[in-house]
Amino acid sequence: MTTATDVKAAETGTHKRRLMSNNDSMIFAGLVLFGILGPILFPNYTFQIAVLWLMVLFALTWDIMGGQMGYNSLGNIFFFGAGMYICAIVQVGLFTDVGAYTSVSGQGNFKFTPDQYYIGVAVGLVAAAIGSSLLAVALGWIVFGLRGPYFAIGTLGMALAAGELIGAWGWVGGGSGIPMPVYPGSGDGKSYFFYVLCFAAAIATFLFLKWLYSTQFGLAINAIRDDEGKAEAMGVHTLRHKTVAWAVSAFFLGIAGGLFGNMTGFIEPLEVAFPTITFGIFMVAMALLGGKGTIWGPVLGAILFHIVKEVTWTYFLGWQWVALGVIIIINIIYFQQGIVGWLQEKYPGWFGIEVDERARAEAPAKGAAQ
Amino acid sequence: MRHFTKWSLAAAATVAMMGTSQIAYAAADCKELILGSAISFTGKYSTNGIHAKRGYDIAVKKINETGGVKIGANCYKFSIKYYDDESTPARTAQLLERLIKQDSVKYFLGPYSSATTKAAAPVIEKYKIPMVEAEGASRSLFNKGYRYLFAVLSTSEQYLASSIALAAEIAKKNGKKPGDVKVAMAFEQDPFSLDVRAGVVDDIKKYGLKIVIDDKLPRDLSDMSATLTKVKALKPDLLLISGHSKGAVTAARQIKELNIKTPMIAITHCESGKIVSKFGASTNGFLCPTQWAETLSYKGEAFGSAADYDKLFKATYDGYKTVPYQAAQASAAVLVWKDAFERAGSLDTEKVRDAIAATNMKTFYGGIKFAPAGNNIAKPMVLRQIQNGEYKVVAPAKWASSKIEHPRMVK
Predict the structure, then answer these.
(1) pLDDT along chain A (370 residues), means of 10
(2) Choosing among B97, B138, B217, which should be mutated to test the A contact, i.e. which has the most A CBs within 10 A?
(3) How many domains in chain A?
(4) Torsion of CA B146, B148, B151, B154, to 10 degrees
């Protein structure tokens, strides 16, 4: 915690940093190359790589609040579920009656034409992104009065409540959920279609955040993390910054929800749309594993986490949760600053951080404390 | 810490080796034919996930021991590739993708629960790969026009509906008006229980009973005392509960603890929740719908009669006083696969799919014949009552072996 804070504070003060260093560009190019070649080289893993991109998106969007702004939200999964439901309702509602489509005993076999399908997905995703952002603005107004652990618990409650409320809402199928419209093309076609969308969403999130953190807005939310009272005293409009930060996170999570709902083919409130104990916790664990408060940390964390999860699921069936637990425990006890946080401290040059040795020498006590 | 990791790795390796040796055994003389299933070994459906897995396994073992599957001139032995879906539909879809794309599995057995089956159906439709499922009963599975989904069980609206007819009948006999019969109900929020509820509500309307409590069970199904407190206050004549095995266990436990005296109580999944051995005499008089009972006069190839299956299952697996129907229907699904493969005489998924659609067989589990929508229409649900710790069929009249005890004996 202190480490990441100090490094960041140092960057903005005695350290200088470019928007995208050579190392960054190279890693980024590698990632994009993997994104393009992945499904071509490993066509059978398309679905899992698509989920991998969503995981990257989860970790990155969690880090806006948790890493950069110091607000640990346990309820970001709310926007994932909200986006999923908004997208589904739009996809269905544009062409037929939602209540009839979702009813338990009714005739749910409405057939979507290809045009209706693609228009539905496109409009649905846009609506999911915007709708989730608006929800973030509205809810932010309520929960940003909370700080520290109270904020974490408050947001968690919000996500749990959302699952229960949707489960009681008959018009959207309640606990029975909504079967998503069927993709009009072949099985592999669907995999690739959503793969491309997931990949694009993750890359767009990364680039947008990379840019956002380089602006004054990035500095402002860092200031909120370091000392909210002081930031406010210095004229930062904290509520507005916090709200915008959350709305950004919700925007991309809403898209992710819309995509995941369509990929899964069936959505229901408790396990698919608002899975607080799986995706909701994974996004925190991934950001912490990679290193919160850095741009690459969440990306690396998400990739490692997803690979470990899939491998244990395949080869150590029944032990997957033990393996995940072990990772989280090691992470929390030995690597609090995460992998990238640790590397950044050890090899600052790799990250384009020019360490001012004189400044470091003048403050040895601080270094030792770390 | 390190010691623990080492130990867990060793254990995992052992498990993995056991898996391989099983497959090696199956391939000894006949070729191997792999069925795939993502099913719940962990999470809230794990109790029944494991019952279903045992049902699949015992049928595979039986078929392999009695000559395997004859397809044309070749002989095959079944084996099943499992993954754990953790009781969440989101995982089901991912695991089915993996089974199809990475493990090249082309024939599927279902997961446990309607919710996970609803997530499985779009994936198998997408890849045009047939699935015979035994544990997804919601009608919402069969009104989507799915071509590759077949279910051996009766649909869920039938589970508790017969208890409404019974309650109305008893009221009439006692000279009460149907409108005076008060019904309390609590259901899990999932596709299965909501469809059970829809069936019940239809019948309540038909008979003109009165609903006084209509509650939702919490998502983890671990507490329903709020509903039961209301039951104590409002004293309904009939209490209906559906929440899979975990819901049944919670209900039975708290009905005992809170000393609920409702004269008629109907709960789904009594057998698989093993409520009789857990809560003893307090469960006497509970009505439990079942897809199958060992006392029914069903008979078929492979397992013989329903009673034979019951005996074999109890001899194979420890700890079963009553064999849950979840296991029986899982075994029936494997029998459907064998029958369909042999009639199709081919491994082609389309040909096998058509053979499944044309299934018309008698088994220990009852008749199996699929409607065009894929659900089984050749077998009824029956209602059993727990009488002195034994499950006795009380409805419908055709299968009834005992008379219903009403009001139930409350100690």
Answers:
(1) 46 49 83 91 89 96 94 94 96 88 65 90 96 96 89 93 88 86 84 94 95 93 93 92 95 96 90 88 92 91 90 76 85 85 81 68 51
(2) B97
(3) 1
(4) 20
